[in-house]
């Protein structure tokens, strides 16, 4: 809708999808994004980053609050 290019529309769709996944998982989007942007530069280029997805982040946060 507000994207000038197809690539821009795809990028927007990815961001919107991740933000709505945060909401669905009960994760505060800003906190999650801050965590991801802090963590990504510390990882190898070919590292598995599935633990950074919102639903895995929510699980890890829940485990951390229990222990």
Please describe what this structure looks like.
There is one protein chain. The chain is mainly α and 67 residues long. The chain has one domain. The chain is built from three helices and no strands.
The coarse silhouette is: globular
Query: How large is the radius of gyration?
Result: 14 Å
Number of strands: 0
| Helix and strand pattern | HHH
Any idea how many domains?
1
Which percent band covers the strand fraction? Answer: under 5%
What profile does the largest beta sheet have?
none
Mean pLDDT: 91
Fraction of helical residues = 55-70%
| Secondary structural class | mainly alpha
Cα distance spanning the termini: 44 Å
The count of helical stretches stands at 3
Flag low-confidence runs. Answer: none
Write a brief structural summary.
Pfam families: DDE_Tnp_IS66_C. With 67 residues, the protein is mainly alpha-helical.
Write the layout of secondary structure elements.
Blueprint: H1 6-25, H2 29-39, H3 54-66
Pfam families: DDE_Tnp_IS66_C
InterPro entries: IS66_C
Protein name: Transposase
Question: Main traits of this protein?
Answer:
single chain, 0% strand, mainly alpha, 67 residues, Transposase, 66% helix, IS66_C, 3 helices
